[in-house]
Design brief:
alpha+beta; about 25% helix; globular
């Protein structure tokens, strides 16, 4: 017997959402597959909220910080990153979620989903052309920074625990790593 899974397109996924099929279920669309997301625990909620507030202060009007809102990717994926730093396009987002060309970088805070965030989700973002992807490892208090897209993969991974980093989209802005990983800033 051959097992075939049903693949969702973005359009079908949106129609199902509008019909209320996934009401109150935390799901994401990854490469045409529905992924049930685990509930967010307190440290995850705290650090992602604090980081988003910090980025709003640092970036001001240069970018829009979207907390736990979907993004639409061309590989039949509509993940809901913890933080998406996007172009401030205003009412354009009434028409559609940010597309890859609208996204400066993505940040995920991770404990229960760490292996998926460092593998499957990283691959989805890279293949979609997201220039920079950060994963805050809440288990080991490290910031993983993925950059330098080459052939749909990130060529560079930095693992940081201290210091500052300038996002690729804003080389004149230096953010404190400690503000993301939960250690007191120095």
């Amino acid at each position: 017997m051959t097992v075939t899974t049903y693949k969702w397109t973005i359009e079908r996924y949106h129609r199902a959402i509008e019909a209320g099929i996934f009401e109150d279920q935390p799901i994401e669309l990854w490469r045409g597959e529905l992924i049930v997301m685990p509930p967010e625990r307190e440290p995850h909620a705290y650090y992602s909220t604090e980081a988003a507030d910090y980025l709003r202060t640092v970036l001001g009007e240069r970018a829009k910080i979207r907390d736990a809102k979907p993004i639409t990717l061309p590989n039949n994926s509509e993940p809901v990153p913890d933080i998406a730093i996007v172009k401030p396009l205003g009412e354009v987002y009434l028409e559609h979620h940010p597309y890859p060309e609208d996204i400066f970088w993505i940040i995920e805070f991770s404990k229960a989903t760490l292996s998926k965030d460092l593998s499957e989700k990283k691959d989805i973002y890279a293949q979609a052309g997201i220039a920079e992807y950060w994963v805050v490892n809440l288990k080991t208090t490290q910031l993983h920074v993925f950059r330098d897209l080459k052939n749909g993969q990130y060529a560079t991974e930095l693992i940081l625990t201290t210091g500052t980093i300038a996002p690729l989209a804003f080389p004149d802005i230096f953010v404190q790593v400690q503000r993301f990983i939960g250690l007191p800033s120095k």
